């Protein structure tokens, strides 16, 4: 084993609630993270311009786009994100790049030296990121919430501002059974002395406004204090007009594929405006280039091929699957799809997957590796009721290869090259970021 692997083993042996979700409310509180930071000498006090991104849908995209905006204005960023799609090092990024294992090693080793009984994997890995950023002093630090917010490890850090994206029913066995209960966990990240931008709506927004008022936290609310207007979808992206503080921008070309990504960009811009109005003004003046699309994290409406389409998206809840269906239909009008599907256990999916099923003719269903899966038989039964022909596969890799072979066979049988098959079925891989990661690995091999 490498020195990194030996040091990392101490962390890997800790309880990991990403892989094994608790079935009931659990011990999580901030004392474990606070104690760990104290034993490390409080490295968090050295972090500058720390922002936190929470919510249910889009927090990974907001974090990544916020980093892209900062880097485009010559700010060095440190990003802590979860979960990873392909490789562990995706979770800790510096200056736009994952930090290599050998550079993480001394910090992993240091954290391993001060672990105590009951520490969790997420607490330990958060501490690794804090140590690295404290050493390298990025201009802006962006920490994505892992689960919930109120008791998440990242909430133990001193933050200047935060962003709360949309709320949906997720992790209900831990966070609560209703939108209001889940929102209460999300808004628990608020503290006096920080500001908040949000995409919350309806009852979730009511919960947030009450909490913010009690703490004196100023809010910037999407649709009230800032907004975006999609003028047109083009092959190169969206033509968008933004509004911040009552001032409308010129119409901008935003090179993104999905409408929900434009919403995430708008939240990222509002968050940047909160911590640095000068950088915000520079971005709005210069506009958006290909760097914006390149800033996106993997498996968020990731279009690997346009004709026929090959789309990878880690949507795994009712709302995210519904957004995926909307964007897939708008980006590829009239196109039918084959779908590779694998989901983690315990997800609420029927409404969103039902919407997506209206675009699908065939499906390859498989379990995911690394965590408990939603029953493939149950998923197949649901899809077959929608009139979709399904095949049960042993794993996502086998499913992707089988779907690709069938797609290529249909193209060859038509007598036309792939580039000429403008109406040929596309392929979608969805249901889980874990499934997306497996699929990307297989596609890289092929």
Compile the SSE list and pairings.
Layout: H1 3-12, H2 31-39, E1 50-54, H3 59-72, E2 77-80, E3 92-94, E4 97-98, H4 101-113, H5 121-136, E5 140-144, E6 161-164, H6 172-175, H7 179-186, E7 195-198, H8 202-215, E8 219-221, E9 226-234, E10 237-244, E11 247-248, E12 252-254, H9 259-275, H10 277-286, H11 290-295, E13 302-306, E14 309-312, H12 318-331, E15 337-341, H13 350-357, E16 360-365, H14 376-385, E17 389-392, H15 396-414, E18 426-430, H16 433-445
Parallel strand pairs: 1-5, 1-6, 2-5, 6-7, 7-8, 14-18, 15-16, 15-18, 16-17
Antiparallel strand pairs: 2-3, 3-4, 9-10, 10-11, 10-12, 13-14
Quickly describe the structure.
The chain has 446 residues and is α/β, with parallel strands linked by helices.
Report on this structure.
The chain is of the alpha/beta class and 446 residues long. The chain has two domains: 3-295, 3-Layer(aba) Sandwich (UDP-N-acetylmuramoyl-L-alanine:D-glutamate ligase), CATH 3.40.1190; 302-445, Mur ligase, C-terminal domain (Protein-Tyrosine Phosphatase, Chain A, Alpha-Beta Complex), CATH 3.90.190.20. Helices cover 41% and strands 18% of the residues. It is built from 16 helices and 18 strands. The chain has helices at 3-12, 31-39, 59-72, 101-113, 121-136, 172-175, 179-186, 202-215, 259-275, 277-286, 290-295, 318-331, 350-357, 376-385, 396-414, 433-445; strands at 50-54, 77-80, 92-94, 97-98, 140-144, 161-164, 195-198, 219-221, 226-234, 237-244, 247-248, 252-254, 302-306, 309-312, 337-341, 360-365, 389-392, 426-430. The chain has an eight-stranded mixed β-sheet with strand order 4-3-2-5-1-6-7-8, with helices on both faces. It has a six-stranded mixed β-sheet with strand order 13-14-18-15-16-17, with helices on both faces.
């Amino acid at each position: 084993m490498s020195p990194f692997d030996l040091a990392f083993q101490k962390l890997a042996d800790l309880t990991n609630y990403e892989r094994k979700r608790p079935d009931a409310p659990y011990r999580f509180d901030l004392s474990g993270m606070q104690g760990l930071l104290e034993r490390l000498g409080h490295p968090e006090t050295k972090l500058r311009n720390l922002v936190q991104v929470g919510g249910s849908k889009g927090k990974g995209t907001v974090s990544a786009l916020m980093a892209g905006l900062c880097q485009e204005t010559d700010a060095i960023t440190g990003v802590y994100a979860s979960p990873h799609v392909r490789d562990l090092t995706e979770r800790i990024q510096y200056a736009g790049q994952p930090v290599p294992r050998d550079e993480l090693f001394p910090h992993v080793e240091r954290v391993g030296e001060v672990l105590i009984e009951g520490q969790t994997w997420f607490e330990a890995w958060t501490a690794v990121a804090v140590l690295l950023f404290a050493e390298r002093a990025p201009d802006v630090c962006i920490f994505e919430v892992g689960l919930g917010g109120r008791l998440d490890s990242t909430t133990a850090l001193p933050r200047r501002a935060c962003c709360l994206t949309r709320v949906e029913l997720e992790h209900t066995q831990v966070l609560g059974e209703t939108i209001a209960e889940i929102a209460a966990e999300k808004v628990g990240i608020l503290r006096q002395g920080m500001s908040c931008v949000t995409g919350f709506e309806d009852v979730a927004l009511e919960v947030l406004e009450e909490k913010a008022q009690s703490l004196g936290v100023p809010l910037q609310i999407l649709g009230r204090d800032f907004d975006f207007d999609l003028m047109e979808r083009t092959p190169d992206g969206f033509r968008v007009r933004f509004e911040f503080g009552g001032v409308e921008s010129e119409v901008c070309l935003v090179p993104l594929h999905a409408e929900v990504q434009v919403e995430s960009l708008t939240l990222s811009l509002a968050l940047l405006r909160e911590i640095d109005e000068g950088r915000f003004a520079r971005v709005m003046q210069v506009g958006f280039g290909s760097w914006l699309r390149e800033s996106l994290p993997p498996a968020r409406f990731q279009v690997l091929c346009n004709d026929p389409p090959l789309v990878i998206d880690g949507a795994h809840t009712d709302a995210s699957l519904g957004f995926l269906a909307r964007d897939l239909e708008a980006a590829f009008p009239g196109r039918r799809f084959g779908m590779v599907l694998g989901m983690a256990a315990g997800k609420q999916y029927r409404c969103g997957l039902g919407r997506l099923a209206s675009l699908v003719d065939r499906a390859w269903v498989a379990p995911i590796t690394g965590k408990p899966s939603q029953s493939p038989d149950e998923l197949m039964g649901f899809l077959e009721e929608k009139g979709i022909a399904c095949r049960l596969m042993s794993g996502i890799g086998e499913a992707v290869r089988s779907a690709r072979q069938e797609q290529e066979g249909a193209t060859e049988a038509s007598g036309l090259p792939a580039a000429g098959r403008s109406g040929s079925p596309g392929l979608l891989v969805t249901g889980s970021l874990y499934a997306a990661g497996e699929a990307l690995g297989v596609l890289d091999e092929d």
